[in-house]
Design goal:
Pfam families: UbiA. It is a multi-pass membrane protein. One of its GO terms (cellular component) is membrane. It is found in: Membrane. Helices cover 72% and strands 0% of the residues. By secondary structure, it is an all-alpha fold. It folds into two domains: 153 residues, Tetracycline Repressor, domain 2; 111 residues, no CATH class. The longest helix is centred in the last third of the chain and has 29 residues. The chain starts with a helix and ends with a helix.
Length: 331
């Protein structure tokens, strides 16, 4: 049990809401379909969790093998405090690279077993989704593509945790695919990608100085960064509005527009960051929960975390509003 807890803790399980919320949302949207299966829905969510944790560990494995984690040491020496240690369980000697590889295989084999059950129950579409997701997930930091080191990591994660994840879970839950889940999954994917992109804008200078290629570094222009940020923040709401007006989404989805002020607030605070990076900003109730805030303030990185939390909470509340709407109107 201690071994299981050790690997779950080191697989960045705190990021699970970024995959769990889209998965739960997909199940809620599939609930009213005639061939809905709760047991297959639960299996699909379990597969998402295992796959997410496994791919996080593969990311550590590939980085450590190539010694890419060294850039974090350079940042620490340069006084960059917003970064957290990566692969510390390896550098401290708590685990070996071989044990990490074995943990990766266990997580992914369990996810594969669940995928096999879903494939036998729902058919070939699940196989396609699984193969594409596995290939792209390993290509995040693995050879030959190493997409996260070409400035494509944010877009890749958004595609995987939005359209791919939600289509796979939805199909597993009800055995069919509907345009409504596609129209919702794209906004969700954009908001997932926005969490990483917001991070990369704030880490633009240190990332650039050590040669880490993110989308912000790839753009290498602060006006262009803000322009792309408008896509990540505002296109989700435009797509939902379009879906409603085209009668592809129910009218009660207009309620999700109540989350739009959070997107505006984050955009405003990111403009302030680019213009005045050291200027303090106040925390407001509409920003949502921010864990260990007093401790964070004590470390002096609240300028970073308040924006990161806001990006995370924007995704969470967006998903939860649509999820609750589906639950309320399905009763």
């Amino acid at each position: 049990m201690n071994t299981v807890r050790f690997w779950i803790q080191n697989s960045r399980s705190n990021a699970l809401p970024q995959s769990l919320l889209p998965a739960f949302l997909a199940v809620a949207m599939a609930f009213r379909q005639p061939d809905f299966s709760m047991s297959l829905s639960i299996l699909a969510i379990g597969g998402v969790v295992l796959g997410h944790l496994g791919l996080n560990l593969w990311d550590d494995y590939f980085d450590y093998r190539r010694k890419e984690t060294a850039y974090r040491d350079k940042m620490a020496r340069a006084g960059i405090r917003a970064r957290i240690a990566k692969c510390s369980y390896l550098t401290s000697g708590a685990a070996t690279i071989g044990q990490l590889r074995n943990a990766c295989l266990v997580f992914c084999l369990l996810a594969l077993l669940i995928g096999l059950i879903l494939f036998l129950s729902r058919g070939i579409f699940i196989l396609y989704i699984g193969l594409i997701t596995g290939f792209l997930g390993l290509s995040y930091s693995g050879n030959p593509l190493r997409l996260s080191y070409r400035g494509l990591g944010e877009l890749l994660v958004g595609f995987m945790f939005g359209p791919l994840l939600m289509a796979g879970v939805y199909y597993s839950a009800c055995g069919q695919l509907d345009l409504s889940v596609i129209l919702v999954s794209i906004p969700v994917g954009l908001l997932v990608a926005n969490i990483l992109y917001t991070h990369s804008i704030m880490d633009f200078e240190p990332d650039k100085s050590v040669g880490k290629m993110t989308l912000a570094v790839l753009l290498n222009n602060k006006k262009a960064m803000l322009l792309i940020l408008t896509v990540f923040l505002f296109l989700p709401f435009l797509l939902i509005g379009y879906g409603i007006m085209a009668a592809c989404l129910p009218a009660y989805y207009w309620w999700v527009m109540g989350v739009f002020p959070m997107a505006l607030g984050l955009f405003y605070f990111m403009i302030k960051y680019i213009k005045y990076p050291t200027q303090e900003i106040d925390r407001y109730f509409w920003m949502g929960p921010m864990n260990n805030w007093e401790k964070i303030k004590g470390t002096g990185i609240e300028w970073f975390m308040i924006r990161w939390y806001l990006a995370r909470n924007l995704l969470s509340i967006f998903c939860l509003v649509i999820l609750l709407l589906n639950v309320i109107y399905s009763v």
